[in-house]
Each structure stands twice: as C-alpha cells, then as structure tokens.
Write a structure and sequence with these properties.
It is a single chain. By secondary structure, the chain is of the alpha/beta class. Helices cover 55% and strands 12% of the residues. The chain has nine helices and six strands; from the N terminus they run ααβαβαβαβαααβαβ. Strands 2-1-3-4-5-6 form a six-stranded parallel β-sheet, with helices on both faces. Helix 5 links the parallel strand 3 and strand 4. Helix 1 packs antiparallel against helix 2 and helix 3 crosses helix 9. The longest helix is centred in the first third of the chain and has 31 residues.
Length: 237
C-alpha cells in the first residue's frame, strides 16, 4: 500500500518535470517562470525519492507485524474484557493491539512478539493473572527487553502474590500447560518481574469497582491512550 502511494507520487512528479521541460520549448515562454517551476518539480522529485528510500529502509528493519499494544490477561477471567478493551483502543486510535489469547499454542512465538514486535505491554491483572505461565513469561520478557513499556491495570479482584508464594513459584504458577524453564525463564526472573510490576516504578491504572458496564472500559481505553495513571475516572452518570 505504501509502496503504491510512493510510486504514484513519483510518477506524478516526473510528469510535472516533463511538462516543465516541454514549456521550455516555447520560445515565447517566460524563462524565469520555467526555471522556478523546474526547480520546484526537481526538488519535489528528489524529496520523494529520498522519502521513498527512507520509508523502505524503515519498513525493512521494523518487525512485521508490529503491535502498539499487547494485552496480557487471564483468559478464564478476562477474555471478554480484554477483547473489549482491544476493540475500544483500536476504534479510538487505529493502533494495532494484540491479545495473548489469540495464540496460546506457541508460547515462544508470544515471547518473541513481546521482545521484538511490541511497543507497550498492558498487564490486565485479575485474581489469577500472575499464576498463568504465559502471562509470567510475557511480563519477564517485557522487562528484560529494556525497551517495551509496561503498564499494570489492576482490577478489584487482583491480589498480589504473598511473600511465601513468591518463594514457592513452582507451586504458585500453574505449570501444567507450560514449563517456563524450557524457555530459559527462571523463577528468580519471574519473582523480580512480579516485584517490578507491582512496585511503584511501574505505571498502574486502578479499574474502579463503582463504574459498571462498557462505560468503565471506555474510560479505561481513554486513560491507556493518554498515558495517565492512577484510578480510572468514575462514571459521573
């Protein structure tokens, strides 16, 4: 799509440049006007060529697909909520949003998306989010990347793991579907990521229990896009 637009613009500029040259064959034409038109046409052509090369290089080295947001969540408790948030963000901004329940078969692919193809990880925290191994792995991968932004969205049902649970992650994490050790993710890395996620250094949005219905998620989507933190605004109606 982008290549077609660039090709069309360059073609139009070349036509304009040829028309300027044609004007020069008329001996009665104003040579100063022809020179100005020629300089403008040539400059536009040169700018389009450089711009096309720049866009081509950018697209070549930018991973494809690329996601602006990745909503990490527990499918059993928040599948519909995460998908609604995805739709609202995309509707408001036309940004690309991925939710991990779209593909739970290849966990290494999910981790690769977080590491190489993502700008911002949204961790939608419900009661058992952190006990899911793919969620834990995504959080660890995001923090270890040193590049991916992370925002925690705390729902009223979320309770952070206790100190004892952090010391016994083998029992806290539901490893029946996945062993994070196979992906070189140690329990120590998981514990460090959980502490960072629930600590003051990570942006956090509190989802209020007072607002009901889709209005609550409309407010949440707005807060995510604005980059604000703290409690999501309550519905005044």
């Amino acid at each position: 799509y982008t290549a077609n637009i660039m090709d069309g613009l360059i073609s139009m500029t070349l036509i304009l440049l040829l028309m300027t040259g044609t004007m020069a064959t008329d001996l009665q034409a104003n040579m100063d006007s022809i020179k100005v038109a020629g300089v403008i046409a040539f400059s536009a052509f040169l700018a389009l060529v450089v711009g096309t090369l720049g866009v081509g290089i950018y697209l070549r080295f930018r991973p494809n697909p690329w996601y602006n947001y990745f909503i990490c969540h527990h499918k059993g408790h928040a599948a519909a909520q995460a998908r609604l948030l995805k739709v609202l963000i995309q509707t408001r901004s036309r940004l690309s949003v991925f939710i991990d329940s779209d593909d739970l078969q290849e966990l290494d692919t999910l981790f690769d998306i977080v590491k190489c193809k993502l700008e911002h990880l949204l961790v939608y925290l419900t009661r058992e989010t952190l006990s899911r191994p793919w969620c834990a792995g995504e959080i660890v991968t995001a923090f270890n990347s040193g590049r991916v932004k992370v925002t925690a969205i705390r729902t009223p049902s979320f309770v952070p793991p206790t100190e004892d649970q952090m010391k016994s992650l083998d029992t806290y994490l539901d490893l029946s579907s996945c062993n994070l050790a196979e992906y070189n993710i140690a329990n120590e890395a998981v514990a460090a990521a959980f502490n960072q996620l629930t600590g003051p250094e990570t942006k956090c949005i509190q989802l209020p229990a007072t607002s009901l219905g889709s209005r609550k998620f409309d407010l949440l989507a707005g807060q995510v896009l604005s980059g604000a933190t703290g409690p999501a605004a309550a519905d005044s109606n």
